[in-house]
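User: Predict the full complex structure for these chains.
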Amino acid sequence: MSERLVVIGGDAAGMSAASQARRLKGPDELEIVAFERGHFSSYSACGIPYWVGGDVPVRDKLIARSPEEHRARDIDLRTRTEVVEIDVAGQRVRARDLESGAETWTGFDKLVIATGARPLRPPLPGIDAPGVHGVQTLDDGEALLASLDRAKGRRAVVVGAGYIGVEMAEALLGHGFEVTVLNRGEQPMATLDPDMGRLVHEAMDGLGITTVGSSPVRKVLTGGDGRVRAVATDSGEYPADVVVLGTGVVPETGLARAAGLPLGAYGGLLTDLAMRVRGHENIWAGGDCVEVLDLVSGRERHIALGTHANKHGQVIGANVGGGYATFPGVVGTAVSKVCDLEIARTGLREKDAREVGLRYVTVTIESTSRAGYYPGAALMTVKMLAERRTGRLLGVQIVGREGAAKRVDIAAVALTAGMTVEQMTALDLGYAPPFSPVWDPVLVAARKAVTAVRAAG
Amino acid sequence: MSERLVVIGGDAAGMSAASQARRLKGPDELEIVAFERGHFSSYSACGIPYWVGGDVPVRDKLIARSPEEHRARDIDLRTRTEVVEIDVAGQRVRARDLESGAETWTGFDKLVIATGARPLRPPLPGIDAPGVHGVQTLDDGEALLASLDRAKGRRAVVVGAGYIGVEMAEALLGHGFEVTVLNRGEQPMATLDPDMGRLVHEAMDGLGITTVGSSPVRKVLTGGDGRVRAVATDSGEYPADVVVLGTGVVPETGLARAAGLPLGAYGGLLTDLAMRVRGHENIWAGGDCVEVLDLVSGRERHIALGTHANKHGQVIGANVGGGYATFPGVVGTAVSKVCDLEIARTGLREKDAREVGLRYVTVTIESTSRAGYYPGAALMTVKMLAERRTGRLLGVQIVGREGAAKRVDIAAVALTAGMTVEQMTALDLGYAPPFSPVWDPVLVAARKAVTAVRAAG
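Assistant: Here is the predicted structure of the two-chain assembly.
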């Protein structure tokens, strides 16, 4: 007796789930139908800035597995088909063919919701003018690239200085644009503490990117041709031949909300550790549309990141396919770069620690990526938070050049293991002059944190 | 009432201990006398291959703190002075001034033994001929550099294909030598399993380094001028204008042995977790002259590595200075490179696991340092060992190009925390296309290991 699995969303989480389930159960046991409203499947949204910037030569490099490849694996993937309703009690979904407009109901025994996130597009005058672009989908990327060609001048404004914002600043620089990043907060990279964000700000200055803090955008101004010509903030107008929005994303959970499924404080679906939607035996959810447990704060958070989406998909696929797997949660690791500046963070910022009632100490150190005497040794700044009294590691932020970002993995594993900073000082990390100083920068920070924890009492 | 601390050995462990003790106790509380038989203090022996190779322009770059700098911090460091006897019961050491030959006794309240390791110089005919060089000390490095200048031809033979051997092969290549590495074992890098060593072998071939396995050296042949002219093995003679020995080191514990201090199976001093010599209240030891606890196998091992020596020194200094610190042990992490080939390992090899009675599964995967579509994505091979039944991580070996080696830190922390490979699959590691594929190579290996553990039952 064959069951039917329906998957809503054809990107990382949905198609990983479908593929993993297919590996565990053949087509005679499990029919898999997947709906995707776009043209593409299983693509790397995180790669879009690098495609736009020209590091990745062609769009299709970002596609890990095309709809045809999925279909060849007995997954009935229907692109350009949007699910418009989930009937939970009736165990069926209503889908609309975006070409013909025709709607059909499809029943399911098991359902995976992987509807992703949508960019926050602040409801400002002019925000939909030609020349204003999001960079969430491959279609967005195509549109932006065309717009860069059409732009009359070489002035670009990026709204928002988060990951997408700074990555797009680099991409636009690569196209020869004069780039201004307008940021709501005082410093770029609000996922860092402001003191570390300031280092990013200074480095962006050095790269020729103008970063304007405390400047929420009020209005997008257009020219006679209707195309964007400037962006207005409280602090003034910034001329723009093209505008890129990096204003964050929110979970795309309209369908789930309408179906009465449980959502959290950030609007993301709430699941159990097996990625099953809470209270629903036969519905799973994963990727950018869910909230995840932050193992350090014990709170749910919304983190849109391809690596989590892929993990969710694997876990869902295993469970749907009759196996067993869980996603225990995240520690909040993220890495990024602007040109040769590397930015990384994991765990809690000061603000996060305060919010959950943790008392902490912080230390900040400067060290190098290699032995100081080895060519290419690059400076990096490491900030570390540790809990008072217990000395438990709470978070790490790193800003530096080559070799800085991925060092955050050391802290990510230590956070997962619940290590104290004193335990960390004994970590047996890879040492040789081309790879690290004799004390790895993360250990230098840990040593200083031990002293700070003791001093704070 | 002032105490006297005597330190034997002026490099990483000894001088870290002295410096840390000095930070905790001023000269009126603690007198510190340190003996060093060489000219230098606190230098990076690990950096010697890069100085010889020319990456590090001048010798003094390798010196972290000169004797004068130590003396300015109220440490009475006596260079060119060799301790020739430890009188444990009498709490004194006998030291010989290597210039004058004069000997004096110095009493101690506390003693730190940091005598390091000495290179294994196999007792072969001709091994002491001009043109045959060790690379353990700065003096060795000077001598080798002079010898490279004097060499009549451009043929170099490196004996031993461990860390020093492969690093010296790179250095000699940099001087325009034709390099042959003669190795006792079948594959280079015996600290890896042979299947991973084979990858190093192939890469060295590609770099133009001839690596000859299963070729223990029998004799060093000299020319009419008494200088080395060839190296003889069972498989033939290898012409050599210069020979570099990379044949490993053993703990330099003659003094300790004569004093009746406890030594382990590898001839290294045995200490407790506070780095105190077992059974001796007022004697500490650290660095290359001690054995350390391998946390994965539960056995003592001898690992000569600057990063451990520095940690030992810190721990000893804290304890001597009236504080408290421990060195819990190692997991056996080591990284190295030959030109652009990166080599890393942590935990147990197959052979190590068998020796301690562990049953295991192994998996080997290929992945890339960055997202596959991102420029510069470099291939790497990751081998992982996990315990049968429990799935506990036992070891990781990585061979690849840029971005390969330091990924071993992820496994080093996971080993320290006792994680299973299944727990590792959920690790929240830094992901962005310039830094990692969506599944980090270490996680790809962990996923495959989970399957292997299940299959092995």
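The longest helix of chain A spans residues 441-456.
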